[in-house]
Design brief:
single chain, mainly alpha, globular
């Protein structure tokens, strides 16, 4: 699933101006999230990428308006 994670991180980095430390922290959280989805049976790489991107957006935008991880 490294290719999915790389694709999501690359897309997210193009969409947002996020520093390297935040991106690395996000990568760790994203890997855990993708692992959870795959262990639940989700194996479609396109769908995982969409879910992963939505997850990162939520992490950085949040529902409370926070801008951190």
């Amino acid at each position: 699933m490294d290719d999915v994670i790389d694709r999501v991180m690359s897309t997210f980095a193009m969409m947002r101006n996020v520093d390297g430390a935040s991106l690395e922290e996000s990568r760790i959280k994203l890997r855990s999230y993708i692992d959870t989805l795959t262990s639940a049976g989700q194996n479609d790489s396109q769908r995982l990428a969409v879910y992963g991107l939505a997850y990162l957006r939520e992490l950085h935008d949040g529902t409370q308006g926070s801008s951190g991880c």
